[in-house]
Amino acid sequence: LICAWLLYQAMRENGPTVTIVFDSAAGIVAGKNRIKYKQVEAGLVERVELSDDLQQVIVTATLAKELEPYLTEETRFWTVQAEVRAGRVTGLATLLSGVYIGMDPGQKGKSKRHFRGLSNQPIVTSEADGRKFLLRAESLGSLSVGSPVYFRQIEAGRVAVEEV
Prior knowledge:
There is one protein chain. The protein has 164 residues and is mainly beta. It is 10% helix and 34% strand. The chain has helices at residues 2-13, 94-97, and strands at 17-22, 34-37, 40-50, 57-63, 76-80, 83-85, 88-90, 100-104, 114-116, 148-151, 154-158. The strands form 3 sheets. The protein has a 7-stranded mixed β-sheet, with no helix packed on it.
């Protein structure tokens, strides 16, 4: 009876478990890496394993109980690591703390526990004000994901996705 009560208490206090599928798990280690939202710890990576076809990596993590209502179809996950691209440096804090998984909680949609991890950190998150625009050009030129977009010499946005 005591064991059953302790098991019930442990289950009640634990948050939801999610699985995130990434193309690569560079720097992600079970029991070490954290999931963060707004630089606040939101969960812990529990297990890292290869998919059956060995093409992807499946990360299993436990999140904070308070995040359960925000695990919807709109929720996004990505790995954060130091990166220099197009004259822009991101993730410098990871040089000391290590790689972590970033999270953008969803507000709407059906509840979900299995996610596809993004290959890059999104430029626009759910909490950011702004709009997305689709721009078409004959050639890409020197633009890449993260390149600034200027309006009258003032940075007005960034390139979020490259499509062909």
